Amino acid sequence: MNDFAWALAGFVLIHVGISATGLRARLVGAIGEWPYRGIFSLASLALLAWLVFGYQEMRADPFDPLNEMLWLPPDLARWPGYFFSSLGAALAVTGVLSPGPTYAGFESKSLAQAEPARGVLRITRHPFLWGVAIWGWATSSSTVSASPSCCSGR
């Protein structure tokens, strides 16, 4: 099994096996909330980096059929991709930089205000997630290769 598959399995394992089970509560009880968050964040970041490097390694093989482009979109079809990619990036950045009641550790501070949801949080509760989703859709629909085709079912 390649690095990409191992990293993906580890990433899913810590998010489902630890976060979504009673193991998280036991770990928080043993080491505390903030140390747990720090260790979990570092483990997630390390596995995400391993996932990216594993993907690059997997795609570096010139004889892999996934590396062959199926078709390129016409020039006119790229502009909606640019627009929606920029919109997604803007939503993601404002979502990260806007403090709100949905952020871990800021719940009590935000909910204590008279108006906890301000700015982009009035439009959507999770602007970062919407930004990543729109950016991902725009980049995968503006350049179609064998890789997105196998993942999206097209």
Q: Would you give an account of this structure?
A:
By secondary structure, this protein is mainly alpha-helical. The protein folds into two domains: 64 residues; 81 residues, no CATH class. It contains seven helices and no strands. The model has no long low-confidence stretch (mean pLDDT 79).
Q: What is this structure's SSE topology?
A:
Blueprint: H1 3-19, H2 23-31, H3 33-59, H4 75-97, H5 107-111, H6 127-142, H7 146-152
Helix pairs in contact: 1-3, 2-3, 4-6
Could you write a compact summary of the structure shown?
The chain is mainly α and 154 residues long.
Beta content comes to under 5%
In sequence order, what are the helices and strands, one letter per element? Answer: HHHHHHH
Provide the helix percentage. 55-70%
Instruction: Please describe the biggest sheet, giving its number of strands, its sense, and whether it closes into a barrel.
Output: none
Q: List the total number of helices.
A: 7
